[in-house]
Structures are given as structure tokens and as C-alpha cells.
């Protein structure tokens, strides 16, 4: 570069007084992944399906995938008691829980619980899918793919019906506990 040419590039030097402190990295493991994601606040949903009997489980892995067509995804463990029914189901239900539904979330998360027993209010919805009462929003979706992902499957499904008009604020999951939003 000649003295008459100007260097318009900027060199950014980090301010070490405000730079975050980074701990020693740990080798990747299931425990490391769980520890990192305990710090990630996630919305709480219940996924339902119907085979010979209704099944359901609490999920924090729900994602919107596309608007056109309207696609969602979630992960489900292949060792889950719900997996055999979800593996064969043509349609599933997706329920966004409200902060008033911590006990419902815990019921659907608990292994061996009577998830559709007397305390759970539900009815058969479109396509014969169990639809939970009192949720913030729900969808019934047609399963379009089940993608292997380690000891889980990522289910991709297209919305066919739903209701977004439930009242309340969303339930969150953070650091191993159900929580409510704070203003």
C-alpha cells in the first residue's frame, strides 16, 4: 500500500476487561449436553397420538420448521413408552401448555404415569387424535417423516387443524424445573 492509499479495513481488538471468561472445555458427552441444555429455557408441549390406546409425552424439543407447508418437528426417544405408537401413527397432536399446567406437564413427563386418567381432561379431536383441554394452543398434524437421530427420532409433521386461542401465558422449562415467564 502506498502512503496515498488509505486502509479502510478495521481491526477489532477485544476489550479483555469485558470479554467473557471461558472455562476449560470438557469432552462432549451425554452429561455435557444435558448440562448445557439445562441452561436453555424452552417452551413446554405435550405430544399425543392414538393407537390401541392414547399415548403422550412432554416435549421441549418442539420447533416450527416451515410456514408453507406448515411443518413442525420434535424429538422422541426410541426407548419412550410412547414411541411404538408414535412410530406408527399417521397423525399426532401438539399442545402448547400454559403456566397453569405444570402438573399436567409433570404427569406427561413421568414414566409409568396414567397420563390419560381422571385428572387429565381430553377428548378425541380431528383424525382421532387425543386433544387436551385448557391448553394455550393445539395442532393436529399428519406425520410426514421420522428421521433417525442417535437414540431419538426427529418427527416432522404437517399441521392439518388446530386452535391458537387458549388463554394464559406459556409454561417454560429451565434448569430442570417448570417455570413461568416473568415481566
Structure report:
InterPro entries: Flavin_Rdtase-like_dom, NADH-dep_flavin_reductase, Split_barrel_FMN-bd. Pfam families: Flavin_Reduct (PF01613). Residues 1-27 are annotated as: Disordered. GO terms for molecular function: FMN binding; riboflavin reductase (NADPH) activity. The structure is a single chain. With 183 residues, the chain is mainly beta. It has a single domain (44-177), classed as Pnp Oxidase, Chain A. The chain is 13% helix and 38% strand. It is built from 3 helices and 12 strands; from the N terminus they run H-E-E-E-E-E-H-E-H-E-E-E-E-E-E. The chain has helices at 30-38, 83-88, 102-109; strands spanning 42-43, 45-50, 54-59, 63-66, 71-77, 91-96, 122-124, 130-132, 137-149, 152-163, 171-174, 177-180. The strands form 3 sheets. The chain has a 7-stranded antiparallel β-sheet. A 3-stranded antiparallel β-sheet has the order 1-11-12, with no helix packed on it. It is globular.
Quick synopsis:
By secondary structure, this protein is mainly beta.
Amino acid at each position: 500500500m502506498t502512503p496515498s492509499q488509505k486502509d479502510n479495513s478495521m481491526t477489532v481488538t477485544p476489550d479483555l476487561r469485558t470479554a467473557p471468561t471461558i472455562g476449560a472445555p470438557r469432552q462432549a458427552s451425554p452429561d455435557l449436553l444435558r448440562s448445557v441444555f439445562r441452561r436453555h429455557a424452552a417452551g413446554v408441549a405435550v405430544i399425543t397420538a392414538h393407537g390401541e390406546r392414547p399415548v403422550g409425552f412432554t416435549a421441549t424439543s418442539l420447533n416450527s420448521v416451515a410456514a408453507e407447508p406448515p411443518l413442525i418437528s420434535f424429538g422422541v426417544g426410541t426407548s419412550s413408552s410412547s414411541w411404538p405408537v408414535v412410530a406408527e401413527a399417521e397423525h399426532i397432536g401438539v399442545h402448547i401448555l400454559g403456566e397453569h399446567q405444570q402438573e399436567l406437564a409433570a404427569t406427561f413427563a413421568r414414566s409409568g404415569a396414567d397420563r390419560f386418567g381422571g385428572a387429565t381432561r381430553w377428548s378425541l379431536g380431528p383424525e382421532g387424535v387425543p386433544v387436551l383441554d385448557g391448553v394455550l394452543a393445539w395442532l393436529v398434524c399428519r406425520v410426514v417423516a421420522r428421521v433417525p437421530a442417535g437414540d431419538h427420532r426427529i418427527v416432522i409433521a404437517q399441521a392439518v387443524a388446530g386452535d391458537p386461542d387458549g388463554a394464559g401465558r406459556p409454561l417454560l422449562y429451565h434448569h430442570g424445573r417448570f417455570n413461568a415467564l416473568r415481566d
